[in-house]
Design a protein that fits this description.
The protein has twelve helices and 17 strands. By secondary structure, it is of the alpha/beta class.
Length: about 425
């Protein structure tokens, strides 16, 4: 009996700490050695662009921005103290991109996650990779407590564009032999296999955390995959997760954005816009409780919006934070509604949801390189979201139940 009481007391103490307001953390430790994941300098990341003068399509090579020692130190300062972790939690951090490359947001989140790992003394174990072999087997995925989708875009399990198309060079325009047609088809097929494994992983009890561009991905046609013929078991899973009706009538196979809870519709508020204002719709929710002093706050970042067609649904996810439309004007005075495909002003940005037996946390912040080290509150919230998604922190069913339109003044407007 005494042992049981001690365990309960310890659990309550740990839970109370998780949901306490963020406090000043210790200074940057001298022995902290940033991992290579914060310092990638050579890549296969390319964007295809059109020359304004000639109309020529060329490739622009991209490198992730290198986080400086000062920026890493500031991120360490902004990273909250990690509560007592019951057991080692293993995270698979995925950052491959097929579309736009967030060369600031990707290394910034890597840095924050490394700081969390350091402060947890390795109890939050981060495995950074862009090797899709991790997703080619459902059994392999189940080694991890949570998959983190770090600003992945497009068909993010396909090979990098530079590999597929055979471009190289220190800038652009140098063409070499890329994949053959058959190789591209096999590559595309593997993209769907890995996507389907990820969906199964979550539905069967896994966790997923998505940051920023994680909801700008994977609503691609299955022309080669023919999911209705080759993946009847996936359709059964979608039906059990109350997702099939949102997928079956779409031109594209939208299982991934439906699972995540959103599909990108534009970002009227760009990264250079002045600070925007945000509403904490559910201030008593464990993931946001006590972080901000008021029920609203300001920060500067690129702000996503999500289409109504599929994915984003207040009746299927618990919205925690949204943008205050009237208090967030654009610098140039334009109407934000002219720069999004969304039809109304309901711009939810942070949510939790269940998908089958799995747990999902999504936060739309994370475009700018300085989002984490300038906003320790975001760091605290993301840590809590990760602890929930990994299964470390338990959240009551009532706090996962969707709130519908109750808390948003712009719903339907």
């Amino acid at each position: 009996m005494k042992k049981t009481s001690l365990i309960l007391a310890s659990a309550l103490l740990a839970s109370a700490f998780v949901f306490a307001a963020p406090k000043k953390t210790s200074s940057f430790p001298k022995n902290f050695d940033p991992l290579v994941n914060t310092k990638k300098e050579t890549t296969n990341y390319v964007n295809f662009k059109k020359d304004k003068n000639t109309g020529e399509i060329f490739t622009e090579y991209l490198c992730d921005k290198v986080m400086t020692e000062e920026e890493i130190a500031k991120t360490m300062e902004a990273t909250p103290k990690v509560p007592r972790i019951r057991k080692v939690r293993n995270f698979l951090v995925w950052d491959r991109t097929e579309g736009f490359r967030h060369t600031e947001g990707i290394p910034a989140l890597r840095t924050f996650l490394e700081c969390l790992e350091k402060k947890s003394n390795g109890k939050l174990a981060m495995h950074f990779t862009d090797d899709r072999k991790e997703f080619e087997s459902l059994e392999n995925l189940k080694k991890y407590d949570c998959v983190i989708i770090n600003n992945c875009t497009g068909r993010f399990f396909e090979s990098y564009r530079g590999v597929r198309e055979g471009y190289k060079g220190d800038q652009f325009r140098e063409k070499t032999e890329g994949m053959t047609g058959d190789e591209k088809r096999e590559d595309e097929k593997m993209n769907y296999i890995c996507r389907d494994n990820l969906i199964r992983y979550v539905a069967e009890g896994g966790g997923i955390m998505g940051a920023h561009a994680a909801c700008d991905a994977m609503d691609c046609r299955d022309n080669k995959h023919k999911f209705e013929e080759k993946s009847p078991e996936l359709i059964d899973i979608l039906k059990k997760c109350d997702a099939w009706d949102d997928v079956k009538n779409e031109e594209k196979f939208s299982a991934y954005p439906v699972m995540m809870g959103g599909r990108f519709a534009g970002h009227p508020w760009g990264a250079g816009n002045k600070e925007e204002t945000f509403i904490i719709e559910d201030p008593k929710h464990p993931i946001v409780k006590g972080i901000w002093a008021e029920d609203s706050f300001k920060l500067q970042d690129e702000i996503y919006t999500f289409i109504e067609a599929y994915g984003y649904d207040r009746n299927k996810q618990r919205i925690l934070i949204s943008i205050d439309y009237d208090k967030s004007p654009l610098n140039d005075g334009a109407d934000p509604m002219t720069r999004t495909n969304r039809k109304n002003k309901d711009f939810g940005l942070v949510w939790v949801k269940e998908f089958g037996k799995g747990r999902i946390f999504y936060g739309a912040f994370g475009h700018r390189k300085d989002v984490y080290y300038r906003n320790p509150e975001v760091c605290e919230m993301y840590m809590r979201g990760l602890l929930f998604a990994s299964g470390e922190t338990k959240i009551n069913k009532k706090d996962l139940k969707p709130l519908g339109e109750k808390k948003n003044p712009y719903y339907g407007k």
